Amino acid sequence: xxxxxxxxxxFFLFTCRTLAFDWTLIKHEGRDxxxxxxxxxxxxxxxxxxxxxxINLEGPxxxxxxxxxxRELYLNGLKFILSFPxxxxxxxxxxxxxxxxxxxxxxLRPAKIPTAPVHTVVLDAGHGGYDQGASSLLGNEKAFTLDxxxxxxxxxxxxxxxxxxxxxxxxxxxxxxxxxxxxxxxKAVFVSVHFNAGARxxxxxxxxxxxxxxxxPSTNNTNLSFADFQPSVGNIRDAExxxxxxxxxxxxxxxxxxxxxxxxxxxFIVLRDSTxxxxxxxxxxxxxxxxxxxxxxxxxxxxxxxxxxRGVLSYNRAVQRNEASDQMMVRRSQITEEPAPDAGASxxxxxxxxxxxxxxxxxx
Length: 364
Ligand SMILES: [Zn+2]
Description:
The protein is an alpha+beta fold. It contains 8 helices and 18 strands. The chain has 2 domains: about 100 residues, Copper amine oxidase-like, N-terminal domain (Copper Amine Oxidase, Chain A, domain 1); about 200 residues, Zn-dependent exopeptidases (Aminopeptidase, 3-Layer(aba) Sandwich).
C-alpha cells in the first residue's frame, strides 16, 4: 500500500557529542525509514540530485549513489547491497533506518565504533577433507582456499600480526568448531576464504559477506523469515562486521580488478557464531571460465592474500582513527584529481585515487 506513511517522530539516531541532529522518522508498511535528504545533510554531502529516481550525493571526498526501488548502493564506486530497497513515498526518497544504522553509519564513521585494534587474525580456509567445496577441472575449492590462507598467513606474520588457522591441512573441521576456535582469540578478526559456484556460467567476480543484522533478510533471500529475527551471538559485532567487510572488499576489488558483486549479508554459521568481527570472502567463481583460470593461477591467489593483509590494515586504521580526522571511511576516487594530501598510509584510503577508477556503470 502506498501513501500510508505516518510521519513524524523526530529522534536522535546517534549520540553525537558535538551536535545533535534531528532525524525525521517515517514509518512505511511497518518499517522505519529516514529521508535520504537527512542522510545527505547529516553526512555533509554538498550536492544532492534525485532526478529520474537516481540518487546521487556528492561531497568533497565521497559520492553515494543509489536508485529508487533498488537495493544497490555505491560508495565511491564500491558496491553494497542494502537490506531493504530505497523507496519513494509521497515524493520523498527514503532509506531504511536499518541500512542507515547498520551500514551507512559504521561504514562512513568507523572511528566511532567502540572496538579494540586487531592483533590477531584468524584465517579460515573453507571446506577440507571429504568436503571439497566447489570443484573444477583446474582444482577444488578446498585446496585453493588453503593455499590463499597460507599465503595470507605469511604476509600477516611478516606485518607483525599473530595468525591462527582453523585448518592447516586437508582435513574436515565442522563450521561450529571454526567459530568456537575464533572466539577463543582476543583482539582478533576472523576471515573466512571461499570460492563460489554459480548455476549460470556467466556469473563471475568477487563478493564479500557480512553477518545479516537481526531483523533483515539474507541478501540472497529477499523475503523475511522467522529465522531472520532470531538473535545470533555474532550480532554483537554488527558495526565491526560491516566495517571489516568494507575494508576487505575494497582491498579485493582494487587489488584484483575483478567484477564487483558487492558486499552482501548472510547468516553463514561461521559468521553467525563468531563473537569476534568476522567476514567471509568469495574470491571468484570456479564455475566461470575466466575466474577459474585466474583462481588456478598462483599470482592471483597471492593477490588475494595481499588483499587480505591490506584489508586488515585498513580496518585497523579506520577503527583507530581519532575524532579529529574522523571524516570518511571510503574516500572519493577521481582520476582527474591529484591524490588527496592525506591519502597516505595513516588514513582510511582504500580507494586510492591513483589506483581506482569509478566503473562507468556505477551511475546506472
Ligand atoms: Zn565455499
